[in-house]
Amino acid sequence: MTMVALAFSPDFCIVAADKAVGEIVQNGRKVLLPIQAVKIKYSTTEPMPYIATAAGFSQAVEHVSNYDMKLPGDIIQLGDSLALEMKTTMPQAAWVNEYTSSFVLALYDNKFYTRGFYLNDEVVLFQSDNPISSVIPAGLSDPNLAARKAHWERNLTEAITPQDSTRTPLERLNDTLAVMTDAFSECASINNFVSSSFDYCVLTKDGEKITLNSVPTGTIFG
Questions:
Q1: What's the predicted TM-score (pTM) here?
Q2: Which of 141, 165, 177, 222 is the most exposed place for a label (fewest CB within 10 A)?
């Protein structure tokens, strides 16, 4: 399992994924391995820098390849490519009963694009240009957790959105990461296959920069 959170604003966005690694063992039993992994891949290649991650068990994440995108429609090709790689390189028994999805955030012509894609049945979960409402598409998917999921999505949206002029972009970034820390901790406390430790990527329109686990320098963040 994986927890993924995507927070959106007009000037920068954040994609975060937990670091837990699990695998399927005999008789379909799932175990959490005592190791951690970075589940986020990103590309700064022009004209369309992007961030991609996958939710499901750990092996699927490794198939997020370095895929150069040149147009917004290429997000669709990335999801299709990832689904094909998963299904051709991994035993069907390993993924068929797992909820395995890809999530992509890209920047093109000063506009953000995002897409969630269910790899198993190749179904689009969400797709938007210039997204507004933050989402937690993996990790709190149990219907019994719908209220908590909505709570954290609302808090992420409020934290990252420039609702007034009193908070700087850096303050909004730090506020969002603080909400993510609490959300990942709660998810880990109720899901043995999610880690409270997470990695995050920041994609900013200013300078079209992407950073992993750090603040982009020489941008709106100072």
A1: 0.93
A2: 165
